[in-house]
Amino acid sequence: MKLNAVSRLVVGGVALAASLMLTRTAQANNCAIGYGYGQSLKNMSYKQAYGLFENIYQEWCPSMSSVGTYFRLTEGANAVGHMHFWADDPTVTCIAYTATWPNGVMGRGSPCVAVDPLTTSREVSFHTSIQQAKIAPTGATYRWRVSSIQIRGTVSAQVIVQQTDGTWWTFNNLTPGVWNLGSTGVGASAFFVQNQNSADGSHVTFDNTTVQTF
Questions:
Q1: pLDDT tens for residues 117-173?
Q2: Contact between 208 and 32 (Cβ < 8 Å)
Q3: Fewer CB atoms inside 10 Å of the end CB: C or N, the chain?
Q4: Of 198, 122, 192, nearest to 161 (Cα)?
Q5: DSSP letters for 170-196
């Protein structure tokens, strides 16, 4: 885990050096978004069993408002129509084409034995290097921020947080690992994940994300 790591942070176009340290308060409530919420996976296209994400994915965060709210994952800029929802278990590497939905289509072993896609933990991976993921609440929330994110794979990512006052916080060069993004901003309205260098042709992969009230 990368704690107290220094990243380049841009606020309203002004570059600053920032220490990424999470500060906890008595009022903080965390919601862990793991991209494997079974109810939401069930409502998606059957193609998500192959690792294709075509529709809206959302995850329930009960502590983010007095009645709870969903945080929704969609494509942001440069949409191409889908992202990938691969299993984050490295042993799930094959496709069991003969499996019956929903007890397939991903699998492990040889011959391939299907796993249940509705209970298989996922990670989010882009289809192209220029894609952008957007994550935002679907309803009213307490004041919140993005406190951590896990970058998987081999490609560095950039996380951009849109603030409620119209400013933007940009976390650059997040190499693979768990990044603690700290107590930044006045309150977020949405955040975006994209390739740090979209020209390199590589695909960003990210996973476990934490949003926090304050």
A1: 888 889 999 988 999 999 999 999 999 999 999 999 999 999 999 999 999 999 999
A2: yes
A3: N
A4: 192
A5: EEEEE-SEEEE--S-SS-EEEEEEEES
